[in-house]
Amino acid sequence: MERNVTFLPSVQAYATVIRIVFGCGLDQKLNNFLVELVRKGDKGRGFSVMDLLKAVGEAEEEGKGSLLLLSRLSSALVKAYANLDMFDQAIDIFFQTSPLGCVPDIQALSFLMNRMIASGENNMAVATFMQIERLGLDADANTYVLVVQALCRNEDTKGVEKLLSRLLNSEPRKCSVFYMNFIEGLCLNQMAGIANLVLQPLRDANILVDKSDLGIAYRRVVRGF
């Protein structure tokens, strides 16, 4: 009697393909590849995502290059899970890779939060930011805009006030470029009113003191209304 036997590629084979694709700079092809890979699940692949990360790491020489590749791969995996609305699995990647020293980058977190907000998971987006920030990721202006957006959609005015107070009183204080990008992001996302609330405290705290920066910031707010 003939039996239909399915041979699954080994985790080492997948690791080799991923290293080649990364090396060629074919990030978009890799993103599509990873979406299909995570869609299969552990059973369909024959190995876990962490097995894959370890296999890629073992194939690389130890050092900065290895950690950089693993960080890029973990970031791509977060985006792959997010594209499939598999948010819990995407969050797990951050915590599973933290001990390896190759946590996904802040752009991956922003991508994940954006997908959560688009899916109506505003509470999850805020909670995810708060949890993952503890891993030491330095959130950029875009990430904070997403947090404000999620809070606003939940009509959580106290949450917005706390976040703004924290930003304005952060130590070490963020640079003026951060706040300029933050204001621009708020205005582009129909939150000019909140951007306006931030302007005067930034002037009072001597964060935005350059007349050119202030002029640009005010014009952005006016255009946003």
Keywords:
mainly alpha, 225 residues, Pentatricopeptide repeat-containing protein, PPR-containing_protein, single chain, TPR-like_helical_dom_sf
How would you summarize the topology of this molecule?
Blueprint: H1 11-23, H2 27-45, H3 49-59, H4 64-83, H5 87-97, H6 106-118, H7 122-133, H8 141-153, H9 157-168, H10 176-188, H11 192-204, H12 211-224
Helix pairs in contact: 1-2, 1-3, 2-4, 4-5, 4-6, 6-7, 6-8, 7-8, 8-10, 10-11, 10-12, 11-12
What would you note in describing this structure?
By secondary structure, this protein is mainly α. It has two domains: 131 residues; 86 residues, Serine Threonine Protein Phosphatase 5, Tetratricopeptide repeat. The chain has twelve helices and no strands. The protein starts with 10 loop residues before the first helix and ends with a helix.
Largest sheet: none
Shape: elongated
Residue stretches low in confidence (pLDDT < 50, at least 5 long) are none
Summed over residues and divided by their number, the pLDDT gives a mean of: 87
Helix-strand sequence: HHHHHHHHHHHH
Number of strands: 0
| Domains, number | 2
Helix content percent band = over 70%
- Give the C-alpha Rg: 21 Å
Q: Please report the distance between the alpha carbons of the first and last residues.
A: 74 Å
The fraction of residues in strands falls at under 5%
Family: Belongs to the PPR family. P subfamily.
Organism: Arabidopsis thaliana (Mouse-ear cress)
Protein name: Pentatricopeptide repeat-containing protein
